[in-house]
User: Fold these one by one.
Assistant:
Number 1:
Amino acid sequence: MTGRAYTRCMDGHWFSGATCPNDGSESEWSREVSDAAHRLGTNDVSLSLLIAAGLSVEASRHVLIIEHDLASWPPGAPIEIIELHEDTR
Ligand SMILES: [Zn+2]
């Protein structure tokens, strides 16, 4: 299994890497995650690896790690995340 770290841009897109492929924006969190992954020398990450590489606790709250089998899910494949909100009516 391989882990990929995703963060969200201001427009709500989840992406892996420093900049959002949809609009080129980056966030404080995406930069931190990207820097930590760079220090690790791999994009195959887990939350504990990222924290060991210096990711701040605050940034760790804004990261989504998805583990997947590369044989069935090529790196860079787009993901769509549907957020579920509690019904507050
Ligand atoms: Zn975006």
Number 2:
Amino acid sequence: MVAVNQLHYMVLGVKDLAAWEEFATKGVGLVVSRRQGDTVHYRGDRDVARIITVQSDHEDVQAIGWSVSAEADLDELIAQLVSEGIEYSDVRGQDARTRNAIRLVRIMFDGVVHEVAWGLAFEDRIPFQSPVAIEGFRLGELGLGHIAMLVSDMEQSDRFITQILGHKVTGHMFVGPTEVRFYRCSARHHSIGIVQDPSPPRRVQHIQIEYNSMDDLGRALDRAAQLPMPVIVPIGKHNADWVISFYVRSPSGVAIELAHGGRLMREDEPTELEIFSGSVWGHRTGMDKL
Ligand SMILES: [Fe+2]
């Protein structure tokens, strides 16, 4: 079985590309790295794109981009998909380049496109420099924070994430009767979390991105007060991944968790069960409205 090594990029459908650009650059602090028709690519480190917005009336996740380090991993993944009768497309050439990759395997699961990409583009000619005063984002080989998904069937999704994408289960958390499961593919505590919801308003519940310092996070909170970047969950510290974070509403409706201080896991860290409120402190309101 192949194991992806990080959550590399997210593709989001967005109605108002200009409003999203203002939010992403002046609010979050990302940089536009590429424009391509009705598509805008944003970087937060050496990678050409961590978030890609595509003009669309359907404001949800369009694709979740995972990566592998070797092309042979894609061939092995395809062999597994064939043996299990799972449909896929092997994307190369110009089509792969729209995702800044040499080649990728595209799989539709539970109404969401997952892309496993190989050979992703970096930008070394121009070092990343945020348009706002921050030290930077904690990305690199840890990948793009995490995505929290609302899935139609917990067990089927669990199987896809562990047996097809090769994640490890980090933990099960119960907040009241609601179960959240966390999965890791890098040292980051989780790159994907799932909650069962058969008919959600959108499949992505939130996307998390981490800053390098607590001051970066505090300055983002200051910027939120002056921008169309409404805070929907006030600052707090989570159980499970220990991040200090607050949540803002992006112009496309998708919640973004701006964070600092996420927990890193050892390779052999055991799976944990947590029965908690979801936060050590703070995050007092709004979690139910994500
Ligand atoms: Fe989160």
